[in-house]
Design a protein that fits this description.
The protein is of the alpha/beta class. The chain has a domain of about 160 residues. It contains 15 helices and 15 strands. The protein has a 13-stranded mixed β-sheet. A two-stranded antiparallel sheet has the order 8-9. Helix 7 runs parallel beside helix 8 and helix 10 runs parallel beside helix 11. The longest helix is centred in the C-terminal third of the chain and has 14 residues.
């Protein structure tokens, strides 16, 4: 296998992903012959464990033999999800002096998308990443996705904080047990990513289950330091409160297009949902997945009603403002007596789905019902929605059971 790579030069190969069925036998694997044989490589995807013995040599080798490399992906247990990772997303063109400089104005060669995933403290990822991050890379880098305490740690954060990433649009950080402090994270966000447009923060903790790092202070730092932010994602950020989220949204309401909140307990409160419905006219996507949420299905209905009818700031109808239909709405409810959430009834969910279909171009409702709650529902002689219902399945069902002419007219009115 090594001979094949060394004996031939694959000048037209631009995308290389090396995966093995028995990775434990390849911990001593040397990827350098493959890299030397692919001088036109633009995208490399490799298990981080395959580089254990060569990690210190890889940065220099990549610079020398892969000058066209744009996307670098190192993962540990599973390849990053192509749908949720930021890498390879299209770069938006911007106008105006305060916007990100056009990528045509900077040298063509250089890394633009970096993804690292390492859960263990072996030091493999930093030994590859840190030499690659220099002044030239900081001017070019568009997306940075770091996952795991092996890569989200004080050493890496201190190195990144030494640069200003003028072109960085996408940032994703996930680091349970990362030993990164709140001040270190805020310092990086405040000084190093002035043109950030999309940020996703996942469960950054200083040590095991203690000291969650992401709180209202981090949101306040984002609001004051990222004037071009368009989307935010929060997952397992238990220290973020509804009050902190409300202050953040008040400052960012005129620009945010996407909000994702998953497993954050007390973030999406009634007041937050009402503010989003009444004031965030630019919102295109909203995703909520909460186990211990204080929200109910009724709150989602109220949100849809406000978005549909517009808010009233005075006593006359002229003060009503009608908002555009939200492009994508994803809601997940966990119906479990242990979480204090009860199943609202199938008839009510049918009513809610109808409103979701009017209020969103694309939507998804996931109902996760505990076994105890399901038994209770069946005991009442009622069926329950379990799993996913989306706009496609709902509309197909409507076409089957409703008069075609009437439904077609209502469907056309919704879409246009």
């Amino acid at each position: 296998m090594h001979g094949m790579a060394a004996d031939y030069e694959h000048v037209n190969l631009c995308d290389l992903s090396l995966q093995f069925q028995n990775p434990s036998n390849y911990y001593g694997f040397d990827p350098r012959p493959f890299l030397k044989a692919t001088p036109g490589l633009r995208r490399l995807c490799l298990n981080i464990r395959y580089t254990r013995n060569t990690c210190a040599l890889l940065p220099g080798f990549l610079r020398e033999h892969c000058p066209e490399l744009k996307t670098l992906i190192f993962y540990e247990y599973a390849r990053p999800n192509e749908e949720t990772s930021f890498h390879d997303r299209p770069v938006r063109n911007n106008d105006g002096a305060t916007m990100i400089p056009s990528l045509t104005a900077v040298p063509e060669r250089g890394l633009k998308h970096i993804v690292f995933q390492e859960q263990n403290y072996e030091g493999i990822s930093p030994s590859i990443l840190l030499p690659l991050i220099d002044e030239d890379t900081s001017k070019l880098l568009v997306s940075l996705d770091l996952d795991g305490p092996g890569i989200v740690n004080p050493e890496v954060m201190a190195h990144l904080s030494g640069f200003v990433f003028q072109s960085l649009q996408y940032l994703r950080l996930k680091g349970p047990y990362s030993r990164v402090t709140r001040s270190e994270l805020c310092s990086f966000l405040q000084h190093s990513v002035p043109n950030l447009m999309h940020v996703s923060l996942h469960d950054i903790r200083y040590h095991r289950w203690d000291y969650p790092v992401i709180d209202d202070t981090v949101l306040a730092t984002l609001a004051s330091s990222t004037p071009r932010l368009e989307s935010i994602g929060l997952e397992c950020c238990y220290k973020v409160t509804g009050a902190g989220m409300l202050l953040f949204l008040e400052r960012m309401s005129g620009q945010l297009r996407s909000i994702t909140v998953e497993q954050c307990a007390s973030v999406m409160t009634n007041k937050v949902m009402q503010f989003v419905a009444e004031n965030m006219d630019t919102l295109d996507e909203l995703t909520i997945d909460e186990k211990h949420s204080c929200l109910t299905a009724t709150d989602i209905e109220k949100f849809l009603d406000i978005r549909r009818s517009g808010r009233t700031t005075g006593n006359d109808d002229s003060s009503k403002k009608k908002r555009h239909t939200i492009r994508r709405l994803n809601i997940t409810f966990h119906f479990d007596h242990g979480y204090g959430t009860s199943y609202p009834g199938t008839a009510y969910l049918d009513h809610l789905f109808k409103k979701m279909d009017v209020g969103a171009k694309e939507w998804k409702f996931i109902s996760q019902v505990s076994m105890d709650a399901l038994n209770s529902i069946h005991h009442r002689g009622e069926n329950a929605y379990v799993g996913e219902v989306n706009h496609i399945s709902y509309r197909k069902k409507q076409l089957r059971y409703a008069p075609k002419t009437a439904y077609y007219e209502s469907f056309k009115a919704i879409r246009y």
